[in-house]
Amino acid sequence: MTVSHSGNGRPSPSPTFGDRLSQAVAERESQIVLGIDPDPAKLWPAAIDRASEARARLALTFSDAEEAAGESPPSAGVVARLETAAAVLAHCRALIDAVAPAVIAVKPQLACFERLGAPGWLALEHVTTYAHEQGLLVLADGKRGDVPVTAAAYGQALVASTPSPFGTVAGLGADAFTANPLLGRDSLEPLVQTAREHQAGVFVLVRTSNTGAADILDARMHNGERLWEHLARLVDDLGQAGPAGLKDIGAVTGATEPEHLARLRELMPNTPFLLPGIGAQGGDVAAIAPAFAPGKAGGLVTASRSIANAHETGNRSPAEAARAEAERLREQAWSL
User: Fold this and answer.
1) Where is the composition biased (Polar residues) (predicted)?
2) Is 143 assigned a catalytic role?
3) Which of 5, 168, 200, 243 would staple 195 via disulfide (CB 3.0–4.6 Å)?
4) What is the DSSP letter of 264?
5) Which tens digit of pLDDT belongs to each residue from 75-106?
6) What is residue 184's DSSP assignment?
7) Cα 94 to Cα 49, 66, 91, 135, distances in angstroms
8) Pairing relation of β-strands 176-179 and 105-108?
9) Phi, psi dihedral angles at 209 (to 5 degrees)
């Protein structure tokens, strides 16, 4: 573990992700995570109109990379992806501006950026930097999981830096990321180790919010235990708690199945829960009170479309509607 030095000169442990999360929740008085799932067909019109600055940011970064690689001018396809990525970046910045005071973190869905190729990843890097500038944590939602050597590379890509003969290559710089545990414990351990070395966290899929989760995660094992109960025990064992008491390895526990939360909290008493499914998927904040048993930071309520698309009902601007919906969720969750 990385150490810092206290006033008396003795080394003291650096804060764990659980400590960082607890402090951030207390300071901002929010447990809301803004899911960022940009759909190029549904971007805020006003944001697209102001995409020139975002385009300049991406073009500069992209041209620098091409020049270093000795590449010729970009093809028409690359230009189209660059233009789309610029509009996505402008949309994301506008969305963050609208709701930052009401949320604790952003959760970019990596696939929504990766489908735009290299410009999309550059947009994601800029979104990560901008969210950090607004004092927000960044939870990269990629649900990574693979054999150990590949898992280590995934961890480096998302939170760490990678040494190379040409200098150190910085990763995304996320504060946490999601992981798929179905390849087993040895697929999680490199992710956990890399995250822990950088005071970052991992949120492991335990009982997700999609309807089809029941096909796999509700299956009974040979001892009668449901698979998600087994995964919960694994997550609890992997996590380490800091002075604040909250563990650095979290669990994705869908808000659409609130009847499972009491049992999940019993199995993972000090684990932070990431709770997707509020809003567009039908989850209700009032039903997830067991998630907050360890304290305010024990549950992170994530909402994406219900915030970004709040303007589709009513006559408010996208920014005004998004801010109002994020604030409504914040107040509702904080009161539990």
Assistant:
1) 1-11
2) yes
3) 200
4) H
5) 677 778 888 999 999 999 999 999 999 999 99
6) -
7) 11, 28, 5, 15
8) unpaired
9) -90, -15
- Give me the catalytic one of 42, 143, 247, 296: 143
Q: How far apart are CA 88 and CA 84, in angstroms?
A: 6
141-153: pLDDT as tens digits? 999 999 999 999 9
Q: Which residues pair with 140 in a beta bridge?
A: 177
Which residues, 6 or more positions from 292, have their beta carbon under 8 angstroms from its beta carbon? 31, 298, 299, 336
Determine the Cα–Cα distance for residues 319 and 304; give it in Å rounded to an integer: 14
Residue tagged 């698979």 (tokens)? 227
**pLDDT tens digits for range 176-227:** 999 999 999 999 999 999 999 999 999 999 999 889 999 999 999 999 999 9
HEC profile of 110-153:
HHHHHCCHHHHHHHHHHHHHHHHHCCCEEEEEEEECCCHHHHHH
Confidence of residue 167 (pLDDT cuts 50, 70, 90): confident
Show the beta-strand stretches assigned E in the chain.
3-5, 11-13, 32-36, 105-108, 137-144, 161-162, 169-170, 176-179, 201-207, 249-253, 273-275, 299-303
Q: How far apart are CA 128 and CA 140, in angstroms?
A: 9
Topology, domain 15-38+100-334 = TIM Barrel (3.20.20)
Burial of 314 (0-12, 13-18, 19+ CB in 10 A): exposed
